[in-house]
Design brief:
- The structure is a single chain.
- This protein is mainly alpha-helical and 282 residues long.
- It is built from nine helices and no strands.
- It has two domains: 148 residues, no CATH class; 95 residues, no CATH class.
- The two termini are 42 Å apart.
Amino acid sequence: MVDTVIVEAESPPVSWPAIIAGGFVTAAMTLLLLALGAGIGFAVVSPWSGLPDITTTKAATVGGIFMAVTAVMSSALGGYLTGRLRVRWANSTPNDEVYFRDTAHGVLAWAFATVMGAALLASAGTIVGGGVAAGAGPAAALAATKDTTAPFLDRLFRPDYAALTGGTGQRAAGVFAGGRDLVVDRDAARRILMGLRDRSRTDLAADDRQYLAQMVAARTGLAPADAERRVAAVEAETRAALDAARRAAMHLSFWLVASMLMGAFAAGLAATEGGAARDGRS
């Protein structure tokens, strides 16, 4: 009689099918929560919309809290499934090694979902933005598709119809008597105002301010002094809006980092719990 010895094959240390499955669940849950948040007005980033309208630190805080909750819920679900689906090792594996590898599988599932989600959102941003490159700064890329200076330009070139009744200034079609299009002047004014984004500059250059005042006076029918006052007021409003948007973006970036760290922690912890349930240790 020959004794049969059964040797259990050693399982690979990394179970990629479980990681991929958990990553897909994490990504799907994230999209679901983002769609829900977009519907109730809490979402900061939506895969079906353009640039989020975050201009205050209060709005950034609300959006950041929603991002953190979304990251924890979706990562915990994906991490738990990864732990449950991971290949079970032989009973001789030390418990501390089992805990470590379960946690590592959860973090890997979170990382897979994060990279996959970033790639998908980057592709969507490229399509929507007409080829704008995405990656490290998706908000900056999407900003190119939205004219944030439009309200200020509208105020800058709002005509004084009482002064234009006699036919001076601009035609009804918005074109100078000399043939210069209003769109050209608006674009020039936009570039000048967006120069205030440079934090080293506190005010517009004197020649830029004078050029704007001349355009406003010619387009609106205002007196030169009134045009200069309007330019000064719009300049101050634009600077304040840009400063507020910059502070909100910085605030939101901290929340983004915090939500990612919380998601990784939740995924690892949930994967450990899933592994314990898999091995009957819970």
